Amino acid sequence: MGVVLLGRSPGGALVAIKLIRSEYADDASFRTRFRREVAIARRVVNRYAVPVVDADTEAAAPWLATEFVPGPALADAVADTGPLPASSVRALGAMLADALDAVHREGMVHRDVKPGNVLLAPDGPRLIDFGIARALDDTVLTATDMVVGSPGFLSPEQATGTRIGPPSDLFSLGCVLVHAATGQRPFGSGPVDALLYRTVHDEPRLDGVPGELRPLVRACLDKDPARRPDAAALRAAWAADTAHAGWLPAAVSHLIAERSARMLALPDIEATLVPAAAPDAPTAAPAPGRPPRRRMLAYLGSGAAVLATGGTTAWLIGRDGDRGTGGGGGTGRAAPAARPELRIGLQADLSGPGRATGTAHEQGIRLAVEEHNARADEPFTLALTVADDRGDPEAARSAAARLAADERITAVIGATGPDAAGAVLGAYDEAALTLLSALDGDTRHMNRVFLCARPSNAMQMYPVAQYLGLHGLDDIAVVDDESEYGRQTTRFLAEGLRGTGGRTVLARTVPAGAADLDARARELAAARPGAVVHGGGAEAAAEFARALAKAGYRGPRIAGQAAHDAGFPAAAGAAADGWLVVSTATDPLAAPAARAFTRAFRTRWDGAAPPPFAAEAYDAVRLVAACVRGLGRERVTRGDLVPVLRKTRHEGVSKTYAFEPENGAFVGTGTFFYRVTGGAFRFLGPDPKAV
């Protein structure tokens, strides 16, 4: 939403000021939500809920000021000093339940109870951030299937997009108490979709929770909202443990005292100026660098991820003699000697089964590099080092080791093979080297250095759900091919269709090469589904398309991105005609935003049309360059890049790129529909209403 600043009045009172980013402030619907946020926060009066001091919802840059709490967030305290003792956890639970009871009595749900939203003070915790709380009966601003919250601390209702109420906050509170008592989350860690799945289906891990706490915590974590205690009951159960002078262990009390002392030593403050955005601002808007201490005292990073830079310190910008020709690739252009160099790596399958996509990546990247270096006003030049991994995991590990060892390389784009992508994460993570992928959407690969520059495998099916809803289709057959890709694309689609629309889902697993494929297709066709969605690979989709056509099914047939491959219509033949395919690759020949790119590509590559994922690779280079440009430094370490990438919104020629700052999940746009017609893919665009 923006930044949180530390402010101080002439009399010395400290406040936390939430200053809204201009792109949100200019949106009328967001202003409506912000007015609601302020009204909600003013109505909640409780000693354990941070009060609103002042606000201006109509200012050019709207802001909200709340009382400043100098203590650490619960997340920081546990990370710094370890889990809390049982007595402290009981006190914490009773006081947070008191705050939630006040929220619920106002007819609201907090929706984001997590350790980062709990601040610790000597006289008790403070629950913050009612910014996404909404009135229970609010049917205008919040849809019942909207998922809001932080994975690992949200309820099964939130994970499945069903209607939520006060019991959802009690589930989240149970997760917070497990974290306070053990330092761990009750449903583990890892990719977002894995956390959501375990939250809905698995039992919580409570083995580290002290026995005296376990019964009430387990009750809070019941899958059935009706069986959870309400906030008043939890407060009453642990009422004897509410705040007293020694409610926290000495190490945490020392941490609070240390931060409080810092507030007493603050220097004088000059007024903070908020300039209007320049009319010629670039399309990428990285977060600003660290401000001078006297002008802006602090960013209060409530819930923000902290990334270690790790091993090798990395580089913008070496002034070596082989500029533009780096070992294995290069642009062939000599850069002006006065400009420093930013070196990017490409890891791709250039000679194996995925060489078509790998070559598309290389062509798009080289075009972006050459265009960048031709602009005399750029503060640095780009150079490229290419590593061919042949799509083989072992070769991929060797390629990643070579790129990671080259300290001149600041970021890598790739890999272009699904097996290769998983094989290289360890090497790049160890080197703190950013890996930006325009192709890989496997949610298992999310880590501190990996950014998926496209909707994940699960989220690429979101527009499919929209399409089915717009056409009123029910009894949906959802088919996976027993692959990990098939599992990721179909699982949440099936759960979402059941949970949000109450639709019937016929879930089937049909592995590639199944001996009884025709029989399975006949059984499915006999059920007369309203639509069939296949979430597997291109080969399995082609086999299934032929069997389904033989069974006589002629209803809507939909496939995921893996079927956006020339091999699908080639292998399926006439059976592929009419299939709708959803993909995260745009068609530069049909997309208006990519016209200039298409012309430049044809000029550079002897009249050839840009293949799928060439535009996305082109965008990846421009995204990295925009982030480095925005940092405004001559020297950029590898560790500098991921945080700014996660806070950047970039309008590319193929899609809008944006990421969740805390975990790097892709939250931009860029899913497109195609129809197979006459053995070729016809671009229909991103809007399911137009399909």
Helix content estimate: 25-40%
Order of strands across the biggest sheet? 15-14-16-17-18-21-22
Structural class: alpha/beta
CATH superfamily of the largest domain: Transferase(Phosphotransferase) domain 1
In CATH, the architecture of the largest domain is Orthogonal Bundle
CATH third-tier fold name of the largest domain: Transferase(Phosphotransferase), domain 1
Strand content: 5-15%
> What's the number of domains?
3
Approximate shape = globular
| Total DSSP E strands | 22
Keywords: Signal
Organism: Streptomyces zhihengii
Protein name: ABC transporter substrate-binding protein
InterPro entries: BCAA_transport, Kinase-like_dom_sf, Leu-bd, Peripla_BP_I, Prot_kinase_dom, Ser/Thr_kinase_AS
Structure summarized in a few sentences:
The chain folds into 3 domains: 74-252, Transferase(Phosphotransferase), domain 1, CATH 1.10.510; 341-455 and 612-659, Rossmann fold, CATH 3.40.50.2300; 459-583 and 674-690, Rossmann fold (3-Layer(aba) Sandwich), CATH 3.40.50. Helix content is 36%, strand content 15%. The chain contains 21 helices and 22 strands.
